[in-house]
Amino acid sequence: MTHPKGKNLYGIFNDSFPPILDGVTLTVQNYAHWLSRMGRQPCVVTPWNPVRTEVNYDVMRFFSLPIASRHPYRYGYPKLDPFIWRRLLATDFKLLHSHCPFSSGRLAVYVKRHTGLPLIGTFHSKYREDLKHSFKYMPWGVPIIMKRILNFFNACDHVWIPQAQVEETVREYGYKGKLTVVENGNDFTALADESNLATYRHDARRRLGWDEDKLQLLFVGQHIWEKGIGMIVDALSILKDNTEFHMHFIGQGYAAHELQQRIEQLGFADRVTMHGVLQGRELLADHYAASDLFIFPSMYDNAPLVVREAAAMGTPSILVNGSTASEVISDGHNGFLTGNSASELAEAIRTLGKDTELRKRVGLEARRTLVRSWENVVEEVAARYDDILACHRHR
């Protein structure tokens, strides 16, 4: 598109957008979709991608190049785009909300400084861990970029976090301002309710052709070592001789090839399926519903959407005790917690694999306690936007 045509647009800034699929992208998609459904006009500002996704709202793109170490991600280079700056200032924004502190976030700060519009920044990721991987051959670059990230959040009028424990990470990075918890939502809530969840699960296994009598385990997310996928493989290696299971990995990332090699070397490749990225949310929902346990031993994630997606389909998660992601989990009530080692994870899988009723009960409680629809969440977001705009007008 050449220029957004709406007036009083809500500017939603992020460095990733479909076809890139991750939790932050999903958040941005749902913000824009539900704001649009409510009669509010969003405009997503994001790096250019050669693969286009049709949406019912404005998308403004700027120059980008692929990130070699993080395929299929791209990095935006607005300084190499001679048009984006004027286009942004010519657009009738009423509020700015950036879900990323990098190139799109810097553009949001630019608009704020030239227009005085209120800017919200949401803290989604443990950026230092991402940078350590990206700059592993130039570690001196990490503190430089971390300072820029802190500068971005200091430039925001409001900073939101997806759950309370994320505050520890934000404070560790040096941010001292006020924080507001605004949860993430879930788009699987309409597919099944508590009364027909068992039927949906049975039908999902039939649709996928999975063995009803075999313990089905699932991981969904970027295939990067920071998410604990190596620990999953080591735990399965411990279990391979005494537990019947099938492990499903969904997603992609820099570690996918090495992960596959490691599984083959450990001798249980016939009990693992690497699905890559699934096309279609209902197909992904089937994989969640058909699984007995969602395995997510990540110390990296803040408030992973995937745990709530699994919960929406009645599938309980195993997380590492003490991880930021585990804040919402009460062990044995709405999920399961284990120690941060392959042997402890293996023991948890072995024990829980034998207790169908416990998994069912905890999965239902996970659905009751962890799941909110995106429509409900964005209604809250819209009300917060209105409050921010009202305060801004009365300054």
Describe this protein's structure.
By secondary structure, this protein is of the alpha/beta class. It folds into 2 domains: 9-185 and 374-393, Rossmann fold; 194-370, 3-Layer(aba) Sandwich (Rossmann fold), CATH 3.40.50.2000. Helix content is 42%, strand content 17%. The protein has helices at residues 23-37, 84-90, 103-115, 127-134, 141-155, 166-172, 197-208, 229-239, 256-266, 281-290, 305-312, 342-353, 356-370, 374-393; strands at 9-13, 42-47, 58-62, 64-66, 74-76, 93-98, 119-122, 158-161, 179-181, 215-220, 245-250, 272-276, 293-295, 317-320, 336-338. The strands form 3 sheets. The chain has a 7-stranded parallel β-sheet, with helices on both faces.
Short overview:
42% of the residues lie in helices and 17% in strands. It contains 14 helices and 15 strands.
CATH superfamily of the largest domain: Glycogen Phosphorylase B
Which percent range describes the beta-strand content?
15-25%
Taking all Cα atoms into account, the compactness measure Rg is 21 Å
Number of strands: 15
Mean pLDDT: 93
Query: Helix/strand/pairing class, anyone?
Result: alpha/beta
Secondary-structure element sequence? EHEEEEHEHEHHEHEHEHEHEHEHEEHHH
